C-alpha cells in the first residue's frame, strides 16, 4: 500500500500546476505502526475501501450489457479490502414519476449485479438523485439492492429506518455505517418522516448526532457518508467542516463524503479520519480539464481499533467509456502529491503513522 503524506504549504499552487496532466491523489509514505503482536488483546486490522460517485447514464449505460465487466480493470482495487463503499447517484427503478429538476437519473436492475461483481458491498442512498423518480423509485432501489446482496444506507421506509445505521461485521469488527444528505435541493420534500419514506437529512443535525452517539456506544467503528459541499469546489465549505466537527464530537471515526464531483482533501481531524470528497468513479465525465470531474481515485483505509493507521490512495482518471482507470508512474506520483496538497484548505493532518 502507499500511505498518505501531508505537505500543508502551497496547496492551491500545487494543484494548479498539475491540473492538465493528472488526477489528484495522496503522497506516498511509510507503512503504519499497527502492532504485530499475537497477544489476544491485540486489536485486529481491517481495510475499508471507498470510491466516489456511481451512476449508469448515457455512455455508462452501455457497460451494463455485461455487468461482470461494467467497472473494468479498476474493479480489482475495489475488491482489495474487507468492505467497499461508494455513493450510488441514481435510483434503480423502471417506475415512478420524474421529479421536476435539471438532472434526473435512473438505472436498470442490472446495475446491482454490476456493482456486486466489482466488489462493492454498500452504497449510500442519501444524495440528491436517489429519489429522482419519487418514493416508488426509492422503494424499488432498496428492494432491488437487498435482493442482489447490496447493502444500502441513508434512506428507508420512515425516519427511524433512514437514520438507522447499517451494521457489517468485518474481521470480527462491528462497523456501523450512516449516510446523511446536506444538499438543500428538494430536501424538505425528500426527507423521511414518521410515516413516510425518504432520506436521512443532515439539516436534522440533532437526530444525526444522536444516532451517531448511540452507534458509538454499541459498535466497534462508526463510519459516516455525508453528501455535501459545493459542486466543482476542491475545498470544503464551512458548512461541511461544521457538520464534520459535530459528527466527530458525537463519535464518528471515519467520514467519507461525496457530491462535489471533484476530489477534496482527506486526512486526520483529531482522532477521526475525514475525506471530504471522492470525486466521480463511474460517470459520464471525461478529460483532465477544469473542473477536473474526471479525476478521482480509490481510498484504502487500514483501521485498528478506532484509528486509521494507514492510508493508500490509488489515483484514477475517467476513460472514454465512463470507466475509471488507475494512473501509474509519474502521473500517479504527481496525482498523489496534488491530493496531499488539498489537505491545506481542508485543515486536516496526515495519518499519524505517515508523518
In words, what does this structure look like?
The protein is α/β, with parallel strands linked by helices and 355 residues long. The protein contains ten helices and 16 strands. The strands form three sheets. Strands 1, 2, 3, 4, 13, 14, 15 and 16 form an eight-stranded mixed beta sheet that branches. Helix 3 links the parallel strand 2 and strand 3.
Question: Layout of helices and strands, plus pairs?
Answer:
Elements: H1 11-17, E1 45-54, H2 75-78, E2 83-88, H3 110-117, E3 122-124, H4 134-147, E4 151-153, E5 155-156, H5 159-162, E6 166-170, E7 173-181, H6 187-190, E8 198-199, H7 205-218, E9 221-227, H8 238-250, E10 254-256, E11 266-269, E12 272-275, E13 280-282, E14 295-304, E15 307-318, E16 324-326, H9 329-341, H10 343-346
Strand content: 15-25%
N-to-C SSE series?
HEHEHEHEEHEEHEHEHEEEEEEEHH
Helix content range of the residues, please? Answer: 10-25%
Distinct helical segment count:
10
Low-confidence stretches: 1-40
Total strand segments: 16
Q: Span between N and C termini?
A: 15 Å
Describe the main β-sheet briefly: 8 strands, mixed
Provide the residue-averaged pLDDT. Answer: 88
Radius of gyration: 19 Å
Choose one word for the global shape.
globular
Q: Return the structural class.
A: alpha/beta
Entry summary:
The chain is of the alpha/beta class. The chain contains ten helices and 16 strands.
Amino acid at each position: 500500500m502507499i500511505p498518505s503524506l501531508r505537505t500543508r504549504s502551497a496547496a492551491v499552487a500545487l494543484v494548479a500546476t498539475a491540473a492538465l496532466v493528472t488526477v489528484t491523489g495522496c503522497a506516498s509514505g511509510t507503512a503504519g505502526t499497527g502492532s504485530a503482536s499475537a497477544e489476544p488483546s491485540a486489536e485486529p486490522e481491517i481495510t475499508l475501501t471507498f470510491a466516489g460517485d456511481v451512476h449508469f447514464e448515457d455512455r455508462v449505460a452501455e457497460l451494463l450489457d455485461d455487468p461482470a465487466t461494467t467497472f473494468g480493470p479498476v474493479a480489482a482495487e475495489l475488491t482489495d479490502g474487507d468492505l467497499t463503499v461508494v455513493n450510488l447517484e441514481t435510483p434503480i427503478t423502471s417506475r415512478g414519476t420524474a421529479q421536476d429538476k435539471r438532472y434526473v437519473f435512473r438505472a436498470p436492475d442490472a446495475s446491482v449485479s454490476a456493482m456486486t461483481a466489482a466488489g462493492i458491498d454498500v452504497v449510500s442512498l442519501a444524495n440528491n438523485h436517489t429519489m429522482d423518480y419519487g418514493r416508488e423509485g426509492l422503494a424499488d432501489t432498496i428492494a432491488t439492492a437487498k435482493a442482489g446482496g447490496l447493502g444500502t444506507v441513508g434512506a428507508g421506509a420512515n425516519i427511524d429506518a433512514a437514520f438507522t445505521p447499517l451494521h457489517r461485521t468485518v474481521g470480527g469488527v462491528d462497523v456501523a455505517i450512516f449516510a446523511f444528505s446536506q444538499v438543500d435541493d428538494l430536501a424538505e420534500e425528500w426527507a423521511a418522516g414518521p410515516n413516510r419514506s425518504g432520506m436521512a437529512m443532515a439539516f436534522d443535525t440533532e437526530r444525526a448526532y444522536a444516532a451517531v452517539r448511540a452507534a458509538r456506544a454499541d459498535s466497534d467503528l462508526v463510519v459516516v457518508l455525508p453528501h455535501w459541499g459545493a459542486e466543482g469546489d476542491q475545498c470544503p465549505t464551512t458548512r461541511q467542516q461544521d457538520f464534520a466537527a459535530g459528527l466527530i464530537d458525537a463519535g464518528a471515526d471515519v467520514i467519507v463524503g461525496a457530491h462535489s464531483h471533484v476530489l477534496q482533501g482527506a486526512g486526520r481531524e483529531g482522532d477521526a479520519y475525514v475525506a471530504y470528497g471522492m470525486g466521480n468513479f463511474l460517470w459520464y465525465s471525461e478529460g483532465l480539464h477544469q473542473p477536473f470531474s474526471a479525476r478521482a481515485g480509490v481510498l484504502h483505509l487500514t483501521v485498528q481499533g478506532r484509528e486509521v493507521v494507514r492510508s493508500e490512495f490509488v489515483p484514477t482518471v475517467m476513460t472514454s467509456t465512463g470507466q475509471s482507470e488507475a494512473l501509474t508512474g509519474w502521473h500517479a506520483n504527481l496525482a498523489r502529491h496534488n491530493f496531499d496538497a488539498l489537505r491545506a484548505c481542508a485543515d486536516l493532518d496526515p495519518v499519524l503513522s505517515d508523518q
